[in-house]
Write a structure and sequence with these properties.
- By secondary structure, the chain is of the alpha/beta class.
- It has helices spanning 9-18, 67-76; strands at 3-6, 23-28, 32-37, 40-46, 58-62, 80-87, 92-98, 104-110.
- The two termini are 26 Å apart.
Length: 117
Amino acid sequence: MPSIRVEDVPRAIEFYHDSLGFAPVFRNGVTFAIVRRDGIELGLMKAAYTECKPGGSACYCKLSQGIDTLYAGYQQRGVTILHPLRDESYGMREFMIADPDGNTINFGQPLHPAGPD
């Protein structure tokens, strides 16, 4: 589970829930929380209580499907899009957003689903 540094955990929970659709699943006061969406979990850690990289850190969330719908929803909610949705030469369809603390979150989905083993 990637953990990212935030200045205000309750504010971050609100953003990740209201703007990104992540559900809060764990909270330790105002210093740490876990949010989850579609099997992806992110830790939100209060900056003063962690050795995590400062705001501006990045994490990657790989989806198996639904990236176009996710992207359209984030656009409608006014989420800051840093890198628009596009097909990449390395076989992924990706976009990148920023949270209020300057953290970058990259969402990606394989262009071609893996076949049976």
